[in-house]
Amino acid sequence: MAILGFRKKDAEVTPPDPTLAAFLQGASIEVMPRTAEKIADFGAILPKGTRVYVAHIDGTAIEDMVSTAARLRAEGMEPMPHFPARIIRDQATLTDWIARYRGEADVRQALLLAGGVSAPVGNFATSMDLLSSGAFDGFERLHVAGHPEGNRDIDPDGGDKNVSEALQWKQKFSERTDAEMAIATQFCFEAAPVIAWANAIRAAGVALPVHIGVAGPAKLQTLIKFAIACGVGPSLRVLQRRAADVTKLLLPFEPTDVLSELAAHKAAHPDFNIASVHIFPLGGIKTSATWLATHSKDEE
């Protein structure tokens, strides 16, 4: 069967590039409660066991987050909810959220991040605060955020001092926890900056595997809007160059080129620390799932 459980007739399907297909094995995707409502059955569009991040936007009720995670679990997915530190008021709130996730959705994995709000509402300001709380003891897998092109919220001067120090701290934490840890990155559009960043953190002693973020197929205007809002750096020029080409302006942008380049680099350098791919479905979950099905390895 095809990796997503459906495919066109063989005569209509272009065989996937095997290097890219291998690189995409185990790819993850993310949803929000309101976007999840548009999907009738995740099991019909994603492989069983797919890791699905549940993004927690400030203002989303925890009840909606937990019910989305429970639904994903029931439909054969592996839910990984976000825990944004700056919207969690205190230890009691964090403990309550975790108890709900574990009790109602059998959540075993979590993405810990500072969150998109500028000021904490309570005791937690960073993912390091969450990790230090002890609340995630017993989780099987914990992911933390990575920023291949920097993050001006963390390093306002445009450098990488604070981001680098945080990664060093998380590396040390990974060495004393039983949970599997990885770095999940912001989405990027160009392979060269990603390769340089991944090599640099590895050389600096950060051995955590990287799950590289890419935007799923979407209109160019949509991607530019999200890229600017999320602070995407040098690789934004890929979109800007495409926008200047009127022959491509109206065509959806796909992550095929950037991932093919990363896949080729991984094939040539097996110890390259990018271990997986995470899809941000900015053009819609079904669109990203279809793209993934088309480019992933057929396991028959």
UniProtKB/TrEMBL annotation:
Taxonomic placement: Bacteria, Pseudomonadati, Pseudomonadota, Alphaproteobacteria, Rhodobacterales
Species: Jannaschia pagri
Superkingdom classification of source: Bacteria
Matches recorded under SUPFAM superfamilies: FAD-linked oxidoreductase (SSF51730)
Keyword Oxidoreductase set for record: yes
Keywords: Oxidoreductase
Protein name: Methylenetetrahydrofolate reductase
